[in-house]
Amino acid sequence: MLQLTKRTEYGLIAIVHMADRQGAVVSVREISEHYSVPRRLLAEVLKDLCRSNLVESQRGATGGYQLARPAVSITLGEIVTALEGPPSVSSCEALAPAKHGECDLEPRCPIRSPLHRIREGIWALMERTTLSSLVQHGPLVALERPLVFLPGPAPSAQPS
Questions:
Q1: pLDDT band for position 55 (cuts 50, 70, 90)
Q2: How is 70-125 classified by DSSP, letter by letter?
Q3: pLDDT higher for 155 or 15?
Q4: Residue 105: what pLDDT?
Q5: At a CB cut-off of 8 Å and minimum separation 6, what does 51 contact?
Q6: Is 8 helix (H, G, I), strand (E, B) or coil?
């Protein structure tokens, strides 16, 4: 349903590593070797995170990257948005803005509203999940309401 790109996965690995190192400047090489991540792609991802003001770069022999803000103030939603934009659940939501609203099924589509609610719920969870909660390895966020899955109605007994 929701699948992040490799770029975003590598970005999350890098930014969680930086948060775990608590303010230390880390190099692309360090992250790449520690997690077996392609160095060139990681460098591109870190540049995107810099442009989004989530990480800062430092030049020089001891240069590298560090978080631009405390981990508690950076959300998973911000990181995903910086690297690939907000996720979409159905192909109709992935249409370019110029084509949005051109779907012939939109007025009577039986899945648009439920999928939209699911997407909004996932996105809200990503926006509440902080980088510090990813580093702590504990519960990511407190849910506003507990998730409850109730079994469907019991099949009615029919005479044979």
A1: very high
A2: -GGG-BHHHHHHHHH-S--SSGGGGS-TTTTT--TTGGG-SSHHHHHHHHHHHHHH
A3: 15
A4: 66
A5: 82
A6: helix
Token digits of residue 126: 């990503």
- Say if residues 41 and 33 touch (Cβ distance below 8 Å): no
Separation CA 116–CA 114 (nearest Å): 5
* Nearest in space to 71 (alpha carbons), one of 139, 12, 31: 12
Task: Output the pTM of the full model.
Answer: 0.70
Q: At 160, is the pLDDT very low, low, confident or very high (cuts 50, 70, 90)? A: very low
Identity of the amino acid at 157 = A
Domains of the chain, each with CATH number or no CATH = 6-97+105-136 (1.10.10.10)
Query: What's the whole-number average pLDDT of the chain?
Result: 78
